[in-house]
Amino acid sequence: MKHLLGFLKNYKKESILAPLFKMLEALFELFVPLVMKKIIDVGIAEKNQPYIIKMCLIMVALGIIGLTCSLTAQYFAAKAAVGCSSKLRHALFAHIQSLTWSEVDELGTSTMITRMTSDINQVQSGVNMVLRLFMRSPFIVFGAMIMAFTIDVKAALIFVVTIPLLSVVVFGIMMITMPLFRKVQKGLDQVLAKTRENLTGVRVIRAFAKEPKEIEEFSESNLLLTKLQMRVGRISALTNPLTYIIVNLAIAALIWTGALQVDAGIISQGAVIALVNYMSQILVELVKLANLIVTITKALACAGRIEKVFDIQPSMIYGTEKNYNEKAKNADTAYAVEFRGVGLTYRNAGAESLSNLNLKVKRGQTVGIIGGTGSGKSSVINLIPRYYDATEGEVLINGVNVKDYPMETLRDKVGMVMQKAVLFQGTIRDNLKWGKKDATDEEMYAALDTAQAREFVETKDGKLDALITQGGKNLSGGQKQRLTIARALVRKPEILVLDDSASALDYATDAKLRHALREMGDALTVFIVSQRAASILHADQIVVLDDGKIAAVGKHEELLKNCSVYQEIYYSQFKKEDGKGAMA
């Protein structure tokens, strides 16, 4: 709750004025039964028509003033609630963006989406309702009881018994339902995760005709959520009938007591009507309070879930510009990238993914990384831009530990092209400017030339201004990969990492791409992760990984003679008798 209260501090005026105007509305409402008492006891009893008209006009005036106060309170409450939730959503999004891949992996995408949308909407509704009703309802309840004592003490004792009974019912149900609402939100997470997975993989599901299976699994998750919601709904539904029973019994007792008092000449008929009105007001307000408690319960559960995300602090601390500059002055810049005894164990993993990794890469070299599935290829290159931190040893760029780099400086040096080509909705120009926001058309076309993407960009209507749908669905796999490579090249990085990002390219285009990268000379150090031996044949160094360890490092000819792991990969793709690399 500390984050929520922190954002409400920016709306102190609204948070004070909204309850204040609601209490003013409640105050005017409490005067209405007294006016009714006067109309009955004076106006009707004495057949004084002008007095009745005057009192009716007073009631209308009370209603108009109360409505004005109510609208004013609603305006301030809505302003505070929407403003607070908007700032909370921005802060949560910024916090999620600050988390490392390890924390994001642990939280899960669907959970974070639920926190950003559904949970914050529930908090917004809770804040709005609290500012409007949390002060008003208790004020009416206790105000009505006090006003009843001014009319008749004996009859007012019924209020003293009724209000605690109602409070026990309302708050008892709240205590039971609060943990259940947390379970409902977890169930919603599971349904959202299943929905997201199905929408993301819809083509694969249809390709394997797995629609019935996925529908069945979704139905199971949905049924579980439905049962949870029905359970908590049944308990919450007890609130209204129980409160109505208690209040109606209290009204019956009030009328019976009042009748005896009227018969004895102690109080007037108007006083009984006023007492019944006050009891009815208590009923209405406690029903509102019960619904408010349900909303608050949901909001508190959601606020707790949001708080848990805020409590997760990024595990990476980046260096300052000053500290980096001092280290860079004295650094040994003989190698562009250096791994020294590097080990990596993912969070909650049972074993190391990388162990005792030692590698030195000179500036301008092309390094090929190859190995079997699960050998740790992507893990190695993810350490260079520091998406994950090495749990042992250190990774150096230009002689400086990556942990000493400011984040922007490090990411400017490393151009990363992921295994999965991700493009965003917009134009080709917009996507390329992710690499460099102020890139000129010449810089973009130069990057497209190197990435072998200019040819198909030129055929598009609008060229650089051609539209790309979400996820690049209107492009082929090879076109998406080439655009992602161009996006990385636009920023002119010192180190380019291609994580199996040319897998959809034909061999001719792949060869042209590698040739264009080599022509950049010492300006670019390239890491190529590939399952294709042909893509790394001419690399200056080939790193062969096996079960998270370096099996061998060398050129193609050396490895083909001395490394059994490389031989196995190579000869699975090329004819063994043809040592020159003819395709099998």
How many E-type strands? Answer: 12
Decide which structural class fits the backbone.
alpha/beta
Rg, please? 36 Å
Strand order of the largest sheet: 6-9-10-3-11-12
Q: Tell me the name of the CATH class of the largest domain.
A: Mainly Alpha
Number of domain units: 2
Q: Summarize model confidence as the mean pLDDT.
A: 83
Which outline best applies? Answer: elongated
CATH superfamily label of the largest domain = ABC transporter type 1, transmembrane domain
Indicate the CATH topology of the largest domain. Answer: ABC transporter transmembrane region fold
Could you name the ranges where pLDDT drops below 50 across 5 or more consecutive residues?
578-584
How many helical stretches?
21
Walkthrough of the structure:
There is one protein chain. With 584 residues, the chain is α/β, with parallel strands linked by helices. The protein is 64% helix and 11% strand. It has 21 helices and twelve strands. Strands 6-9-10-3-11-12 form a six-stranded mixed beta sheet. Strands 2-1-4-5 form a four-stranded antiparallel beta sheet. Strand 11 (541-546) and strand 12 form a beta hairpin. Helix 2 (12-44) packs across helix 5 (109-134). The chain is elongated.
What are the key terms here?
ABC transporter transmembrane region fold; four-stranded antiparallel beta sheet; six-stranded mixed beta sheet; 2 domains; single chain
List the helices and strands and how they pair.
Layout: H1 2-8, H2 12-44, H3 49-98, H4 101-107, H5 109-134, H6 136-151, H7 153-200, H8 202-207, H9 211-237, H10 239-263, H11 269-311, H12 321-329, E1 335-344, E2 354-362, E3 366-371, H13 377-382, E4 392-397, E5 400-401, H14 407-413, E6 414-417, E7 426-427, H15 428-432, H16 441-450, H17 454-458, E8 467-468, H18 477-490, E9 495-499, H19 507-518, E10 525-529, E11 541-546, E12 549-554, H20 556-562, H21 564-571
Parallel strand pairs: 3-10, 3-11, 6-9, 9-10
Antiparallel strand pairs: 1-2, 1-4, 4-5, 7-8, 11-12
